[in-house]
Specification:
Blueprint lengths: L13 E12 L6 E12 L3 E5 L6 H8 L7 E6 L2 E2 L5 H11 E5 L10 H12 L5 H11 L14 H13 L5 E5 L7 H16 L4 E5 L3 H4 L4 E6 L2 E7 L3 H17 L1
Parallel strand pairs: 3-8, 3-9, 6-7, 7-8
Antiparallel strand pairs: 1-2, 1-4, 4-5, 9-10
Helix pairs in contact: 3-5, 4-5, 5-6
The structure holds adenosine-5'-diphosphate and magnesium ion (MG).
Amino acid sequence: MTADPFSPRPTPGIAASTTELSKVYGSGDTRVVALDRVSVSFREAEFTAIMGPSGCGKSTLMHCAAGLDSVSSGSVRIGTTELGTLGDRQLTELRRDRVGFIFQAFNLLPTLTALENITLPLSIAGRRPDREWLDRVVSMVGLGGRLDHRPGQLSGGQQQRVAVARALVTRPGIVFGDEPTGNLDSRAGAEVLGFLRDSVRELGRTVVMVTHDPVAASYADRVVFLADGRLVDEMVHPTPDRVLDRMKQLDTRARTS
Ligand SMILES: Nc1ncnc2c1ncn2[C@@H]1O[C@H](COP(=O)(O)OP(=O)(O)O)[C@@H](O)[C@H]1O
Ligand SMILES: [Mg+2]
């Protein structure tokens, strides 16, 4: 009997999780263990930041947890769905309907207006926007009069607001961001972080954000720390100072080990 990927499991309140997740790139001389048996859960309506030194596996963890990349061993769940049991088409649908993504480089389509970019995930799925939800998301990111502008006519901060709205438009349970403020100045970055926090507080979404910035991480409810592909620590109610201290310890450990 094959496992039913949609069967409910006793993990209520968990938006996504990994169990003993490992990811190996290459083989022989070029073999890199990017993730080494990482088990982590992201609770519903919680904002989690993933931190750690450059190259420690943050992006790999996010990509595997979001179903954007395959795993070498271990498992990943989005809600109660075990990704390893899904075929390509089911996986594509899950990513489309239940997960939102925000990237450092905005990744907007230059020929579409802001509004067309925001509703693109729905257009691709052949669905009409839920007007009320769309209005809420658009008013949250405050693009007001710029909805018919193209990305080239918007500042970086405004482009990332479009990307935040696009990530939310399908009403996904969970939104993943890989360094979403990495290309923004501190003021535009603070705005985007505020929207991510509102997505959790006001819209009830779950947000998981990779960052190397302690100030960005302090917007989260919880920070998980990676070093060398392993989950090494966790902090609730982070402040920039406490996060910075922990990062220094990890850096020292990385240099002396
Ligand atoms: N596509 C890939 N092919 C080979 N190695 C990779 C690939 N992607 C990432 N890596 C390696 O995996 C490790 C983790 O990378 P990454 O997840 O991008 O780290 P981070 O986001 O924390 O900087 C690094 O050693 C990196 O060089
Ligand atoms: Mg990265």
